[in-house]
Amino acid sequence: MKAIRNHIILSIIAIVATNIYYILWLLIDASVTTRQIINGLSFYEFVVITNGALLIICILSITYKRLGDRLLKWGYSNILRFIMITMVSLLFFISGSIILFSLHFKLKNAEDIYASTVASIDNSYFIPLVFFFGLTSILMFFISNLERRSGNVFRLIAQSMGNSLQPKLIERGFMFIDLNDATSLAEDLGERKYANLLRDCFRMLNELVERSSFEIYQYVGDEVVITWQSNYKNADLKALQLFADYKAYLIENKNAFLKAYGIQPKFKCAIHYGEVVVSEIGKEVKHLVYHGDVLNTTSRLLSKCHFYHTDCIISTTAINNAKKIKEHFALELLAINKLKGKEYPVEAYKVKSVKDIESRSSNDTPFFLNPKVTISHY
Prior knowledge:
By secondary structure, the protein is of the alpha+beta class. It has 2 domains: about 1-150, no CATH class; about 165-360, 2-Layer Sandwich (Alpha-Beta Plaits). It contains 12 helices and 10 strands. It has helices at about 1-30, 45-75, 80-105, 115-120, 125-150, 155-160, 180-190, 190-210, 235-250, 255-260, 295-305, 320-325, and strands at about 35-40, 40, 170-180, 215-220, 225-230, 265-280, 285-290, 310-315, 330-335, 345-355. Strands 3, 4, 5, 6, 7, 8, 9 and 10 form an 8-stranded mixed β-sheet that branches. A two-stranded antiparallel ribbon has the order 1-2. Strand 1 and strand 2 form a beta hairpin. Helix 1 runs antiparallel to helix 2, helix 3 (about 80-105) crosses helix 4 (about 115-120) and helix 7 crosses helix 8.
């Protein structure tokens, strides 16, 4: 799962950053390793126990980070999320250390476990460590915020290291998902209500995307651009499954949409694959962007959905597993002769689920994952 993978990487960064504290002690005084911090607790034991507390935090932080994300969904400020995550991290670190110190002295059959534990946390090693860990928590909050906005911790690291400064030619798949009748909906609902509709729809889509190896490249008005790497196995089938599950997810929440907006949102989709140029643009504000005919073609295919009376078109270039796809989807070949900006015809398929999405009951198991109700304002 992408979210877990990113969390593991960020946890490793946090552990390394916190352990710099011990490196600093060794640089200041190399003989520190031979000392007893207190009776029954050496420097090495102190290092192992506090790293154990860090591992506890890395596991528990999955839960309270999600709570922090929900605060944003509920409309609370990022400042409150920052305060909550930092304070909870410090609380868990101190509590975890106390528990592990107590367990250590119990295993060593200390005469007074309570007094030994208090002495362990009330010394010139632990108190600065808590302060250092607090600074690390603040640093990790900002790194986590950057990762949340970039959508991928590897992309964040690559951009930070300058890997995208020079344009590079790569192969990627792209999926454009666009809201139907967006202009009339915006006029009927009004700007604020329309913005809330898009927020809820895209949040639901994001819940599905984050459980896959797909990435949300950008939001363009009422359109979402999703991309994936060339080595993503069965990406063509999974892309179609993702869109099918998104439609099912929207239908599952039909009553909530009708109550909040008086409409049931529907989307169309186009999928294409090929070579693009990736580069970093901008000076004050930098963005990682993709250029090339693949994106233009995907956009043109999307515009043909209404003409061919379908909500999904996939190019023949994007298909690698036609046999597997036909087990779940009906493919109708289209020879699109007139595609704006294209000199030659483009072959693509009109896609329809073998089992109509509209007829799926709440007991049906979706292709991709089990949809669940989102945390929404309605």
